[in-house]
Amino acid sequence: MHGFFAAQSRRRILMMLALGTACASAPAMARAAEPLRVVATFSVLGDMVREIGGPDVAVTTLVGPDGDAHEYEPTPQAARQLAGAAVLIENGLGFETWLPRLVKAAGFAGRAVVASQGIAPRKLTDAEHEHDHDGGDGHGAGHEHGHGDADGHAHGHETGHRHHHGDLDPHAWQSLANGAVYARNIGAGLAAADPERAEAYRERTQAYIARIEALDARIRATFAAIPAARRQVVTSHDAFGYFGDAYGVRFIAVAGFSTDAEPSAADMARIVEQVKRERVPAVFVENIASPALVRQIARETGARVGGTLYSDALAPSGRPAATYLGMFEWNARQLSAALQPQ
Amino acid sequence: MSPLDWAVAPFADYGFMRRALAGASAAALGAAPLGVFLVVRRMSLMGDAMSHAILPGVAAGFLLSGLSLGAMLLGGLATGLAVALLSGLVARLTPLREDASFAAFYLISLGLGVLMVSVRGSNMDLLHVLFGTVLGLDDAALLLVTGAASVTLLAMECLDPGFLRASGGGGSLAHMAFLVLVVVNLVAGFQVLGTLMVVGMMMLPAAAARFWVVAVAAQIALAAALGVAAGVGGLLVSYHYNLPASPAIILAAGAMYLASVVCGPQGGLWHSLARHGRGAP
């Protein structure tokens, strides 16, 4: 009997709540059109959508600030948010390995926008790896043994990329030129999903791209002023390939593209030798990866620990790297400060 | 390249190899007596269960004060002991046996731990902390693991020898002290080999030693030696064959165990078969 009464009163309360919210939201609906509901997969895309969508969109970001999208496990809440969204913005290039299953589970029927559409993807070729390893082998006979064997080599890389992103480097937003492409894709996607406000999206996209291009020019100038031999750093995982290509900085990564692979002692030795031989001035930790290995390399080689770089996620709001452009400015400043000749 | 070069040069050339060796050796020394007693007292699976049981405490320590080893150690101790006490209590007050109630509580604890890790989301993912890497040991981690090993060796001196012969759990003070030591070594070992693999360093050398010698003291000494050897062997394999270090160390210990099962004079397969063959014409 008790249970029955409880259920009765619960239903009454629910009904009252429903009535209450209906009354409260009616005037709001009259005032302005409902914002477009957009889900972005991770913080960088979320910030771009906020810039371009402005007040016309309500953005939900699945993997938030300082979150590691490599290891994200979707929650039921994420599925619910996706089910209610009109637009989904994803990076593509195999970055969100968990997304296809989530889309299916949520029954998402809106418009999916791949932000990286149309950029020139960096391919991770075997030749590139070969080159890196050969470079590290110059030192002692001890290395030859570990790297000479091509089979063992290929195998090592396979295990290194357990979370493999195919053969493409997904971290394309780490170049501002690509960032402009992202912005254009997102703007076009929002306009297509919400044609009534297409003009507003287009204007904000143009303004945003102008800011991106201005920052791009400034960062290019900063790095061009640093001698090429000094433009080398060590980072935790291989997230800065596009940054390196765009601004002429060579990034040496301890782990592979993903954050969860454990390096071998041979990898560590190779990097230590490379840092010593080429006098790499600094090592950097990332906001989403364990700093232990990078610090170990600094201890071993005397390279400076340069600070934190933001690779796959923005900082929590209120910090300098809390937006895409802020992140870029922060990373560029940290890097250029550490690489500047003393 | 001479064999000596093969074995010595990596450690002579690289500081991170020396640190890894020091960390793995300290973990092996501290774990050896605990592993042997777990084997002798037929509680071999307790180490594994305990390594899961301390997860929520370590996670709570991490959430409250970041990468502080002290906080993580205290949290791990608190949940580890809580699980041990509660399962002992249930075993005493109800007909449920201790192994079943221990399993129940450690699984509850594990669920809680995974929940806390997931809710926190990511930044410096706790998983990276729990799956610490032997190649990235800093001074604090080395100090913790050598400290844990020293405390363990000193404390084992004082433990009542009668306790060591008894099998099974029980609520005695010695038993509690023993559990504390297990938890301390597990938390310290997180930094060196990671949560799951530190148990391997505790159990595999101990189980292997049992096939070679009878006396408990001798088993402890041999287990420690085997553990250190596994550390050296695993690191060299990782260096020369480009394989991840922690699993290489555990697999080296595993190879020693399998070899002991086959060749050990105390009940090893080869010996049993040989004796059997002689006995039955």
Question: Can you characterise this structure?
Answer:
The complex is a heterodimer of chains A (342) and B (281). Chain A has helices at residues 2-31, 43-53, 76-83, 99-106, 126-136, 141-148, 150-160, 176-193, 198-224, 241-247, 265-277, 292-301, 324-339, and strands at 36-42, 57-63, 87-90, 111-114, 232-235, 250-253, 282-286, 304-309. With 342 residues, chain A is an alpha/beta fold. The N and C termini of chain A lie far apart (81 Å). Chain B has a single domain, classed as ABC transporter involved in vitamin B12 uptake, BtuC (Orthogonal Bundle). Helix content of chain B is 81%, strand content 0%. In chain B, helix 12 (216-241) packs across helix 13. The longest helix of chain B has 26 residues, at 15-40. Chain B starts with a helix and ends with a helix.
Break the fold down into its secondary structure elements and pairings:
The complex is a heterodimer of chains A (342) and B (281).
Chain A: H1 2-31, E1 36-42, H2 43-53, E2 57-63, H3 76-83, E3 87-90, H4 99-106, E4 111-114, H5 126-136, H6 141-148, H7 150-160, H8 176-193, H9 198-224, E5 232-235, H10 241-247, E6 250-253, H11 265-277, E7 282-286, H12 292-301, E8 304-309, H13 324-339
Parallel strand pairs in A: 1-2, 1-3, 3-4, 5-6, 5-7, 7-8
Chain B: H1 3-13, H2 15-40, H3 44-53, H4 55-65, H5 69-93, H6 98-120, H7 126-130, H8 139-158, H9 161-165, H10 173-193, H11 195-209, H12 216-241, H13 245-263, H14 269-279
Helix pairs in contact in B: 1-2, 2-3, 2-8, 2-10, 2-11, 2-12, 3-6, 3-11, 4-5, 4-6, 5-6, 5-10, 8-10, 10-11, 11-12, 11-13, 12-13
